[in-house]
Amino acid sequence: MSWALLHHRGRTSISKDGPVNRSHHQLRIQGLSHSFGDKVAIDHLDWSLPDRGVVGLVGPNGAGKTTLFSLIAGFLRVQQGSIEVLGAASPGHPSLVSRVAVMPQDAIFARDVSIGDQLMFLRALDGVRGATAVQEVVATMESVGLAGELDRGAAVLSHGMGKRLGVAQALLGSPELILFDEPTSGLDPANAKQVRQLIRELGKTALVIVSSHNLLELQDLIDEIAVIADGQMIESGTIEEVTRRGRRFEIRVGRLVSEEEAQQLDQTEHVRKSIVAGDRITVDLDGSGEGGIDAALCALLGGLLELGLPPHEMREGASLEEAYLRITGDEASAQLEE
């Protein structure tokens, strides 16, 4: 088959209308637990996600992210609890063929078989053949800017092109739930930007879950975030919700802070943790109570004034990275940055 000829006969396009008959929740997990021998990988985890959008899944190394992805995709059998995917009672159900897609961190393709033929084979595994499969393959490769590579083997592709091919493989069949594991890892800025744009576009018509350690990148990409640690879901919500529930403030006061004053500050209402270094104080506030972060900030300022420590400078941090470090603890940051 000449893929170049098929490509130049006319451009095709991937439907942006999205699948029909969606349930309110594309993914619903209840009481999920999974162990490997004595090692508990997932521990009574609950998680529900809406019908579309881009969701980030983050956590320290060994938190259970890969196991959770494998369970959602049906690669592992559920041991305890339940997973409802796109209305199906269990992952791997025949009704989910072509509706759930996974892009592993390092997707592997045959080096010497044409990319077009490999993608056609993948469609055949899902029962899609002939002109329909050809149209899907060409349209998908066009969407990632690789339509001109259909006749070539994976051996000639650069790392960035290989990543985009992995994205194309995940897009075949217009899936409704797509799992991406580190989709931009190892990419140069231009290729990473293109992959992010593709993911944003996908989030308009499908539910996309992205597992990544790059929090700065995720903050501008995702609609919601979930933080997992020790196999448990410890925080989830929109970016605004997660960053507002607790914030970090860096404060400079007019004099050195004594050890006794530091201890008193640590006991102030809404203060999760404070770190004192000379005349500078870093405070993590809990904004989950009544009045939210505004009430917590008022309590902090009142506590500082009572101690005779009026702020001379204050910088507020509300980044996703700061929220992550607050949620998981600073010790996890070293793992996150690896």
List its traits.
338 residues; alpha/beta; Rossmann fold; Alpha-Beta Plaits; 6-stranded mixed beta sheet; 4-stranded antiparallel beta sheet; 13 strands; elongated; disordered C terminus
List the helices and strands and how they pair.
Layout: H1 3-8, E1 25-36, E2 39-50, E3 53-58, H2 65-73, E4 80-85, E5 100-103, H3 115-125, H4 130-143, H5 159-171, E6 177-181, H6 189-202, E7 207-211, H7 215-219, E8 224-229, E9 232-238, H8 239-245, E10 246-253, H9 259-266, E11 271-277, E12 280-286, H10 292-306, E13 311-317, H11 320-328, H12 333-336
Parallel strand pairs: 3-7, 3-8, 5-6, 6-7
Antiparallel strand pairs: 1-2, 1-4, 8-9, 10-12, 10-13, 11-12
Characterise this structure.
The strands form 3 sheets. The chain has a 6-stranded mixed beta sheet with strand order 5-6-7-3-8-9, with helices on both faces. Helix content is 34%, strand content 27%. It is elongated and about 80 Å long. The longest helix is centred in the last third of the chain and has 15 residues, at 292-306. The model is unreliable at 8-23 and 331-338 (pLDDT under 50). The protein contains 12 helices and 13 strands. The chain has 2 domains: 3-230, P-loop containing nucleotide triphosphate hydrolases (Rossmann fold); 243-336, Reverse transcriptase/Diguanylate cyclase domain (Alpha-Beta Plaits, 2-Layer Sandwich).
Quaternary organization? single chain
Number of strands: 13
**What is the CATH architecture annotation of the largest domain?**
3-Layer(aba) Sandwich
CATH topology descriptor of the largest domain = Rossmann fold
Shape from CA axes?
elongated
Gyration radius over CA: 24 Å
Instruction: Flag low-confidence runs.
Output: 8-23, 331-338
Number of helices: 12
- Rounded mean pLDDT is 84
